[in-house]
Amino acid sequence: MHLLPVQFVDAPFAYPDGAVERLAGGMQWFAAYEVTEAATKRVVPVAEVASLGERAVTLHGRITAPRPALTLGPRTLRFDQPVVAGILNLTPDSFSDGGAHSDDPTAAAAAGMTMAGTGAALIDVGGESTRPGATLVWEEDEAKRVVPVIKRLAAAGALVSIDTRKALVMERALAAGAAIVNDVSALLWDTRALDVVARTGCPVILMHSPDPTKGPHGGDGYRNVVTDVFDWLEARIEAVVAAGVERSRVIVDPGIGFGKSLQDNLALINALTIFHGLGCPVMLGASRKRLIGALSNEAPAGERLGGSVALALKGAEAGVQLLRVHDVPETVQALRVWRGLRDRAFVG
Q: What's the pTM value of the predicted model, to 2 decimals?
């Protein structure tokens, strides 16, 4: 069974008690679930969820429970409203920025602090491209790329995550001041990665890809991409929790663009609310992705701002807590306007 929150409402006070529920303690309220069982779908009011059985009650509890903030040293990452993670690529072959920050740690750190100054709650630093066909980077070289920048960012007070699938890079980045591990392989590519996260107690972002042990873009298709990705992430969460990672320190990412067709990506984006049933904060990384080009006359990566902001707002509407983006000030501005509209809706 899977539950997809639907029938969102602007003014929850206009409904009887129990007729609407708050989505993950955030700014969205909904009145019903689309219930998928085997090959059948039906819509059920939230007030009747208990009649659906134990699995539905468990999912309902996860969907409606507030996501506790992460206190990471002097910084706090809140999940009661959508926030932005700024992407800082330190690779010479990045699909989105052509390696603009790959050889100058001081300039790269300055770019990261600019993101923080314009509203990014988190700076996501990466030293290896994960675009299709990208060359594998030796772990020592990757660490040398990211550590000097992370040290500068952390010293300046920024909250930093390390975007890597390699345990050695995780260790050195965390020692340099990174607070969160963001792994496109969900701790499956490197056999030591899970131990590093469990041992250090750092939060981790688990991203879906079809076969992460081989790379982020493999796979042979899906029976139902939405429920397949949900089930994969649910199993992966249980595995990392069993290995000693606290569930409250897990964030999930459905992996837009990783081993997925345009149709798969659109299906996932239209069903983002289902992933709150995992009981963890959700990150959406759709900024400048190929799907935007596919829907806009093959616009190159540097000309996908409008589509990127549209997808970020779609994520906000779906209750996504963390939006991973290249264009920080534009996305932050869009979210501030969106929040203003939501605040006004609450007061009628």
A: 0.94
